Predict the 3D structure of the following.
Amino acid sequence: DVKVTQSSRYLVKRTGEKVFLECVQDMDHENMFWYRQDPGLGLRLIYFSYDVKMKEKGDIPEGYSVSREKKERFSLILESASTNQTSMYLCASSPTSGSTGRYGYTFGSGTRLTVV
Amino acid sequence: QKEVEQNSGPLSVPEGAIASLNCTYSDRGSQSFFWYRQYSGKSPELIMFIYSNGDKEDGRFTAQLNKASQYVSLLIRDSQPSDSATYLCAVTGLTGGGNKLTFGTGTQLKVEL
């Protein structure tokens, strides 16, 4: 089975801190995604990547950046954390370009981030 | 209009009944359709996908797709308390290409003893 691992389940950070959320997948997937999930708003796409060093903005990229230096690792960076970034962050992956429609995503276990 | 719409619920059904979860989508170009189950505090897990009109069955789950009506549904037969969760509908083929899934906000299902 594909495994998508997020480094932290729970994280508490202070306003203004730079925050790194790490995601690693072990099945050589090309596509990786970062979503946040909030009550009533569902899953919203922040950034995604189809290949190493490649990134594309999703629907809500403001206040976030990403890094993909290796195929298996996709990092989400909150440049200066704010309280409105308190949320559940979910990383996901899918095999290859165009394959999401056949396989869907595999999700990591999520990181619940609280910014105080 | 939201791209993928679901009734937020909660939908309450008695144990052993059929639960019917519905989803509509706005883009006629959508190609594939997924149902994810998400328990409280956990991440979504894939339970069904469908891309052809009609029904697709897998155990107690049946996915139904009607592209003309832009409608996809999930039936859960013989509902169990362990089915209590939020069910997310997701589609590909919306703006930006087929690699991304766009999710509905989910329907909360409660199966009561």
